[in-house]
User: Which sequence fits this backbone?
């Protein structure tokens, strides 16, 4: 059986971009959780979760994002969502969680909004 979700994490400047392609459903939860945890383990200043390629987004995906948000807050990482589909945004709106996430159309937009921190002094 082919996996229903693929992930790829790449560094783009000061940020990590964790991209998902496929379905964020119960069967894909272990892979998605592993990808997000591995990204957090690299201690990025900014973690952009790229959802452009996500076709089906269920409560499993929502719970993954909420868990990632809690970890980001605990570790001082800025977490943003990139390119969620209208259907994905609708799930966030229906569950009244949309306001918890900064959402950008592209990774470039997110990077422009969160420039690297310049050392003081």
Assistant:
């Amino acid at each position: 059986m082919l996996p229903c979700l693929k992930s790829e994490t790449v560094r783009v400047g000061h940020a990590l971009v964790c991209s998902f392609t496929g379905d964020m459903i119960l069967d894909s939860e272990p892979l998605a959780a592993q990808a997000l945890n591995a990204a957090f383990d690299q201690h990025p200043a900014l973690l952009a979760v790229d959802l452009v390629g996500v076709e089906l987004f269920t409560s499993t995906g929502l719970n993954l994002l909420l868990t990632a948000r809690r970890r980001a807050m605990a570790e001082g990482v800025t977490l943003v969502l990139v390119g969620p589909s209208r259907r994905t945004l609708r799930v966030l709106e229906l569950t009244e969680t949309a306001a918890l996430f900064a959402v950008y159309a592209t990774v470039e937009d997110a990077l422009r909004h969160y420039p690297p921190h310049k050392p003081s002094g």
Observations:
- The mean pLDDT is 92.
- DSSP finds four helices and five strands in the chain.
- Residues 3 and 45 are 30 Å apart (CA to CA).
- The beta strands are 5-12, 15-24, 46-57, 78-82, 102-104.
